[in-house]
Every structure is written in C-alpha cells, then in structure tokens.
Amino acid sequence: MSDLEQQYQQEQDHHFVVKNGQESQGAGSAHYKDNNITEVVADGEYIQFGNEKYRRDELVEAFGGTLNPGLAPPPKHNLANPAPLGLSGFALTTFLLSLINVQARGVTIPNIVVGLAFFYGGAAQLVAGMFEIALGNTFGGVALSSYAGFWGGWAALYVDSFGIAAAYEDEREFANAVGIFLVGWFIFTFFMMLMTLKSTVAFFSVFFFLSITFLLLAIAEFKTDGIAIKKAGGVFGLLTAFAAWYNAYAGIANSQNSYITVKAIHLPDLQAR
C-alpha cells in the first residue's frame, strides 16, 4: 500500500501539498495559486486532486495492462486502452529479434525483423504512445513512444539507404557504435524501471528484464567474441517479450471476453516497513 493510500484510510480529513515531488502535510483547506503545487485532500469517501474530486473506488491503481505505474485519477477521455497495442508491438518485435540473438534454428541475420520494427514495434507502438498521452498517462506515453523510436532507429541500421552501417569502414568501430547506442537505451530503461517500483510484479518485470537485455547486448557488441553474451541477452529478451505479452493480455482480458483473467500482484511497499 502506498503512502498516499495509507493517508486516505485515516479517519480524520487531511490536506496534502505536493510540491516538487515531495509531500508535506497541513491542516485546513488553504488554496494555492502556484502551478507547481498539487493539493490532495481526503474528505470522507472522496479524494480531491487539485480542483478535481473523485470517489475512493474511482482511483486507478498501478496496473501493467494500462501502463499505469501508481495510484492516479481515472483517464479524462473515454477512449479504449491503447497500452495492449503498444505492449504487443513491442513484445512481438522483441521476441523475434531475441530468437535470432540466441540463433534459433540457425538463423543469425536479423533483417527479417526490420519490417516488424518499422511498422508494428515502431509505428503501431508510437500511435499507442500518443493515445496514452491523450489519456493523461505520461509514463505510458513516454515508454511506448520511446521504444517505438528505438525500434525505428534499430531498423534503420539495416536499411542501406540510410547509410548508417556504410559510414563505418571499420567493422569493429561499427560494433562499438552499436554498443554505445545500446548503453544509452540501457540507461533510459533503468530509470524507467525505477518508476515501476511501486507497481506490480509483472509490470516491473518488463523493465527489469529489458534493462538486463540492453546491458548484455551492449557488452556483446564491445567484445570481439561476444556470441555467448549475445545469446544470454537473447534469453533475457525472450523473458522481456513474454512479460510484455502478459501485461498486454492483462489489459485486454476481462470476464466478458475470457474465462482466464489476470489479477495484479503488487510489489511490497518498502516505505511501510
């Protein structure tokens, strides 16, 4: 249970001021004009975020199927959930490339992934990310749109008209450049992972496995003989893909369309201990 939820369950009314990412508690119903301040007021069965008031049971909890990493107000727009589309595009593209990284069926050339990376892991995931932003989900919008950019950037490496690979006369230099590219994505993914520590096990698993995947693949590029490390990266890539598919399924499956639904398992609240 998060700190905010614990405060909600107290009998007395409380007034919180969230400024620059930190919470402070005060009494009364003072009003603040500073745009950097968000008021969170617990009043009986209602919770007020700034000027908007919600019932307690209307608040959205952390859930991988919607890419929502923490307690939040419900979406402002009546749109379908775009997260499963983005997660599915990411999962299938990651799955295919990871199979090639482990050299499944003897396949080592990754060009078969290029079309998928441009159109499913790229364009479709980007559209899903834009809809996440429209729904007010900053985390989901940043994650899906960014990884759509990753897949587009990765696919461009294998398209001759971009001239990226041809710009490197030394094959070793090109491998090091790709390694640096992957290190950048490892750093980004690691920070995104830190923002899922208050979410669910399945949600956190996607970014945890993906962080390890990027790190291993980067190391494999830096080494002259990194085949074994690349295969290890492929294994973690497969784990990432299945975790993403699991979250996508969780976001689609319900009692109306499936006999098998997913119950979110929340990570322990370390601050409560």
From TrEMBL:
Positions of transmembrane segments: 83-100, 112-135, 147-167, 174-195, 201-220, 232-252
Membrane topology: Multi-pass membrane protein
Superkingdom assignment: Eukaryota
GO CC field: plasma membrane
Pfam families: Gpr1_Fun34_YaaH (PF01184)
Coiled-coil intervals, chain numbering: none
Keywords: Membrane, Transmembrane, Transmembrane helix
Subcellular location: Membrane
Molecular functions (GO terms): acetate transmembrane transporter activity
Keyword Translocase listed: no
InterPro entries: AceTr, Gpr1/Fun34/SatP-like, GPR1_FUN34_YAAH
Transmembrane is among the record's keywords: yes
Membership in a protein family: Belongs to the acetate uptake transporter (AceTr) (TC 2.A.96) family.
Name of the protein in question: Ammonia transport outward protein 2
Lineage: Eukaryota, Fungi, Dikarya, Ascomycota, Saccharomycotina
